[in-house]
Design brief:
With about 400 residues, chain A is an all-alpha fold. Chain A is built from 19 helices and no strands. Chain A is flat and about 80 Å long. Classes of the chains: A mainly alpha (about 400), B mainly alpha (about 140).
């Protein structure tokens, strides 16, 4: 292999390590050492071979020699590996979700940044794992496992309306939590419009009651078996409306307001008429304030860290300004230290000028502390930015 | 140097398909700007990861590296700790009972006889007695 091919081979191994945490799981010590020590006979790219074909050939040869298939079979019993599989599947579904047009099911049952068509809950994953990874467990290289994941997503997703409704009937908490979040903007809007209340406490109280009622109605079979997504959201909005009327009656008793004079606007039940007021458009609600482009799996620290770094480094990223606001100088120092490999001593010299040896030790320690503090601040800020989504 | 390639963020975040990933890796082979940016992403990722996972002993090691006096002080503390530990381990524990000596008269520092009875007697004596003509 020439130096360029060697660099590419190292990149393949690094990426596999990032995807499948092969160092942490004990497959190798580190990808750099593996790339250096691998016997490269016949691994050079042929003159008529495409890059992609060469990549697959060389990786197959390497992983066959390192007996990856045995490692894979053993790893199927390792909880960490199963977690990685689920993470890879979730990332894949996130990408498909952000590339595809929103399904009708999602339009009815999920917020704009969430999906019920591309969701995988714990119980569902167990079923998929058994079917796609335990029964077919003969993979030569990690990219074949990834290809199997892609085969799985093609075959199983987007979920049909019937499947999602079945999951909701089976009280799948993950699916319900997505639907509950979708109901909140409706509740806030109707509490404002019908209930005449702008207090979040009222909206929260009604939201809780509505979630309880809708969940009970579906899982206890009070709704028809043929209930679809549209029926469910209609039923939920109906419940919200009744609860808001109730709230309005309570408020009218207190303030002597004529209920009918307030509710006459709801003669037409269509969604557009329900939300004809500018302040009642769901997109304008506080829950939609977060500018996260597509949804982040907030329970996966690696995924969160990756998205935070993209926001931190890219000045055009929608979250960049919110993330670094007020910390611009500190972030510049942090980036110089980590991405340009400037030591703390070099940073002191750059920002403080020439200093004595004792002063240098003191200032370098201060810069180290500053970088540490700004890292923690950034983590906390980013957590706050995506928090709205999780709640 | 800038590259208009829009795949790098997806590549770093791990959201590309196998085919897209291979395509980007081919692009990476010829694009120093993307290589540089990817390296920066990875360095930042390691930095933030270390913040989460750095073990205490490594932080201690870094603290010791700060100056010569820190190392001297740490060495002094270490030697003192070892010395005190060694002394505590080897020193005789209490009085040794000689042959023929009654064990009842010997007690160590932490087994003094209970003096509460004597104290109680003193307390009782110091309380003024109630006059006899006052009935309870």
């Amino acid at each position: 292999m020439n130096p360029s091919e060697k660099a590419s081979f190292l990149e393949f191994l690094r990426k596999d390590d990032e995807h499948w945490e092969l160092t942490r799981l004990g497959f190798w010590k580190n990808p750099e050492q593996e790339a250096r020590s691998w016997n490269e006979a016949g691994a050079a790219r042929l003159s008529d071979e495409s890059f992609v074909a060469w990549k697959y050939r060389v990786l197959r040869a390497y992983y066959q020699e390192r007996n990856y298939s045995k490692f894979y079979r053993n790893s199927l019993l390792d909880r960490r590996f199963v977690f990685l599989l689920k993470r890879r599947l979730t990332l894949l579904l996130q990408r498909i979700f952000s590339d595809q047009e929103r399904t009708q099911l999602d339009q009815y049952l999920a917020n704009t940044d969430e999906s019920l068509s591309y969701v995988v809950s714990a119980h569902h994953f167990d079923h998929l794992f058994l079917r796609y990874f335990l029964q077919e467990a003969d993979w030569v290289a990690p990219f074949e496992v990834q290809l199997q994941l892609e085969k799985l997503t093609d075959a199983e997703f987007p979920l049909s309306e019937t499947e999602v409704m079945q999951r909701l009937r089976a009280n799948d908490t993950h699916c319900w939590s997505i639907f509950y979040r979708h109901l909140k903007p409706y509740v806030i809007g109707l509490v404002r419009q019908i209930g005449g209340s702008f207090q979040m406490e009222d909206a929260d109280e009604i939201w809780n009651e509505v979630c309880f009622v809708v969940n009970g109605a579906l899982i206890n079979g009070r709704l028809d078996e043929a209930t679809g997504a549209k029926d469910l959201i209609s039923y939920a909005v109906g419940v919200i409306r009744n609860k808001c009327r109730e709230l309005c009656r309570i408020r009218s008793r207190q303030k002597r307001v004529d209920v009918e004079s307030i509710t006459y606007r709801l003669a037409d039940d269509t969604e557009s008429n329900l939300f004809d007021d500018e302040s009642c458009i769901p997109a304008n609600f506080p829950s939609h304030d977060t500018p996260v482009a597509h949804y982040v799996d907030a329970f996966d620290p690696d995924s969160v860290r990756a998205t935070m770094i993209l926001a931190l480094y890219n000045q055009t990223h929608p979250l960049h300004e919110a993330l670094v606001k007020g910390l611009e100088d500190e972030v510049a120092v942090l980036l110089e230290h980590y991405t340009e490999d400037m030591s703390y001593e070099a940073l002191v010299q750059k920002y403080e000028g020439p200093v004595s040896k004792e002063e240098m030790i003191r200032l370098a320690a201060r810069y180290r502390q500053m970088v540490k503090r700004v890292k923690n601040k950034l983590i906390q800020r980013y957590a706050g930015l995506i928090k709205a989504r999780v709640e | 140097m800038k590259c208009e390639c829009d795949k790098i963020d997806g590549y770093f975040a791990g959201t590309l398909t196998v085919a897209q990933e291979a395509q980007f890796q081919e692009h990476l082979m010829h694009c120093p700007a993307c290589r540089e940016r990817l390296a920066a992403y990875r360095k930042l990722s390691v930095a933030f990861q270390q913040e989460e996972r750095r073990p205490t002993w490594r932080r201690l090691g870094r603290f010791l590296q700060q100056s010569r006096w820190t190392r001297v002080a740490a060495l002094f503390v270490l030697i003192s700790t070892i010395g005190i530990g060694y002394y505590s381990w080897t020193r005789p524990s209490g009085v040794v009972i000689q042959p023929g000596q009654s064990p009842q008269v010997i007690w160590s520092v932490d087994s003094f006889p209970d003096t509460s009875t004597q104290a109680d007697t003193l307390m009782r004596d110091s309380i003024p007695q109630m006059p006899a003509h006052i009935e309870r």
